[in-house]
Amino acid sequence: MQTTSKTFKILFFTLLVFNVILLSALSFMLLNDRSGFMDAERINIKDKTGKNRIVISNMDNIPPPIINGTIYQRAVRPAGLIFYDKNGDERGGLAITDNETTNLNALSFDYQNADAVGLLVQDNKNDNYFKAGLVINDKDLSGKPGHNTNRINLITENGNAALIMNDANEIPRIILQVDSLGNPSIQMFNSNGSLNWKQ
Question: Membrane-crossing residues (predicted)?
């Protein structure tokens, strides 16, 4: 009886020591892994109810947009990061789009139904076209998903820098511009979009 108990104690102690050594070795390897890499195709950060609040994804696994609980088809499939509100509706994100002809990167923050403010960068691969800017939209009070009214654009496009202010019908009414040659101008337009003053 004592022999069995003594044998068990030795075996238990040996296993305990072995597990401590193994855990120590694993901890040492993990803590001293200097690469800091973690590979994933998609990461979902959820709240306590299980709704997504942030999704980080490659373009193959990017989720479709959700507005008022309804799923819509995405116009393009970027890689990036998407923000959601507490109801699980999309409220903005960072999109990195790279296709055969264009690089298009955008950061946006949304109203409840559509884009509100966006930063964008585009440059084409097959020609010298480029554009970067800030876009500010009014909220479409009709509530139509994906609809808004573009009001202010601060853009540089192919070397022409401009501040464009639109009316509620998205018709440019004032354009302040410095062109690629350094020439400044101010233009004003009527409600039909016809130029009626330029300086």
Answer: 12-31
